[in-house]
């Protein structure tokens, strides 16, 4: 079963990798911030995976999560979150999207 502790672990790993200096998303994206997609395989009853990235949405930087079927790659759900530097906000988004898992 996926839980809050697992969501926070994924969120910390992701943000430490793509935004190690905790840029807050204001202004132009610094060179040290990565927009590469990170994929996380997690234990769910359906065998889904989670793709997370940072992206600009309507002029503001956000975190973006996609829940995908691991076997087919089909998109099951997608959510944007408003923070690019808070692992707690990202963990909230992960918990929300993983309710589908």
What strand line-up does the widest sheet have?
Answer: 1-2-3-4
The unreliable regions are none
Strand content: 25-35%
Q: Globular, elongated, flat, extended or rod-shaped: what is the shape?
A: globular
Rg from alpha-carbon coordinates: 13 Å
Mean pLDDT: 91
Number of helices: 2
DSSP E strands, number: 4
In short:
The protein has one domain. β2 and β3 (60-69) form a beta hairpin.
What would you say this structure looks like, in words?
- It is a single chain.
- This protein is of the alpha+beta class.
- The chain has one domain (4-22, 33-98).
- 27% of the residues lie in helices and 31% in strands.
- The protein is built from 2 helices and 4 strands, in the order αββββα.
- The chain is globular.
Question: Which features would summarize this protein structure in a list?
Answer:
single chain, 101 residues, alpha+beta, four-stranded antiparallel beta sheet, 27% helix
Describe how the helices and strands are arranged.
Blueprint: H1 4-18, E1 38-41, E2 48-57, E3 60-69, E4 75-81, H2 87-98
Antiparallel strand pairs: 1-2, 2-3, 3-4
Helix pairs in contact: 1-2
């Amino acid at each position: 079963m996926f839980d809050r502790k697992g969501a926070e672990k994924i969120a910390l790993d992701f943000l430490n990798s793509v935004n190690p200096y905790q840029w807050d998303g204001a202004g132009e994206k610094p060179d040290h911030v990565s927009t590469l997609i990170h994929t996380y395989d997690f234990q769910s009853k359906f065998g889904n995976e989670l793709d997370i990235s940072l992206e600009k949405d309507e002029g503001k930087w956000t975190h973006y999560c996609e829940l995908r079927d691991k076997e087919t790659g089909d998109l099951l759900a997608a959510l944007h979150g408003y923070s690019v530097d808070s692992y707690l906000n990202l963990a909230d988004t992960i918990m929300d999207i993983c309710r589908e898992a």
